[in-house]
Design brief:
Blueprint lengths: L1 H8 L11 E3 L6 E3 L4 E2 L4 H12 L9 H7 L12 H8 L3 H26 L3 H14 L8 H9 L11 H16 L9 H12 L9 E5 L2 E5 L1
Antiparallel strand pairs: 1-2, 2-3, 4-5
């Protein structure tokens, strides 16, 4: 979470990001919370639905009709002018924080770790998968996590199929860089090249600390 947050929020303090919300002009509407839930991609809608189930009558519930309408677009219709303020209010609620963590694990973290273990990769590989699914999702489009992995399979085999872990992760990272460059909003690939690839070159498959890396020119460290 600290490493992802360094790229998503320019800070390793991921627990300070529950209330983060802005439109970063990437065609996905509002991006918010600890993992960049988006109003245009459905995961923010799922999150607010879960929050309603856990705490009916919460401050975000009234936006559900608008979130359903803007899903798949970058529109703010029905969300402005108070959605961002209400999101920040909700982010102080422990129930909403728990809902964000639950959806992060269900949609992103658990599937990434499960696939990583199935492919026989260690913590670095599992993280590379997680970072990819956070940014690209796992839908049907050509840059989705599953299709990034499929592209890598055209070049190498994962350890579970007898492949070399370094060779496989390089192939996966190459495919990921390709996917990043398909979108103008993601053309900076430092989250791979000056972070993940650095640890791969060092043979740090278990992500043992201390970890040093750079994203977008900023330096980070976990001691």
């Amino acid at each position: 979470m600290q490493i992802v947050s360094s790229a998503e929020n320019s800070s390793t303090n991921w627990k300070a990001q529950f209330g983060y919300i802005e439109d970063i002009d990437d065609g996905r509407g509002y991006t918010a919370g600890i993992i960049g839930f988006c109003s245009g991609t459905g995961d923010m809608l799922d999150l607010v639905e879960l929050y309603k189930a856990k705490k009916p009558g919460n401050v975000l519930e009234k936006y559900l009709p608008a979130l359903r309408k803007v899903n798949g677009t970058d529109s703010h219709a029905g969300l402005d002018p108070n959605y961002t303020k209400d999101w920040k209010t909700a982010a102080k609620d422990s129930v909403f924080k728990a809902a964000q963590e639950s959806e992060r694990d269900r949609v992103y973290f658990n599937p990434a770790v499960k696939q990583g273990k199935a492919d026989g990769v260690r913590a670095l590989g599992q993280f590379a998968y997680y970072d990819a699914i956070v940014v690209h999702g796992d839908g049907g489009d050509k840059t989705s996590f599953s299709n990034i992995r499929k592209r890598a399979l055209g070049k190498a085999k994962p350890p579970s199929q007898g492949g070399n872990e370094t060779t496989w992760l390089n192939a996966f990272m190459d495919a990921r860089v390709w996917a990043m460059k398909q979108e103008p909003a993601h053309e900076d690939v430092t989250r791979i090249e000056t972070a993940q690839r650095v640890w791969l070159k060092a043979g740090n498959f278990d992500l043992k600390t201390p970890l040093k890396w750079k994203v977008y020119g900023d330096s980070f460290e976990i001691k």
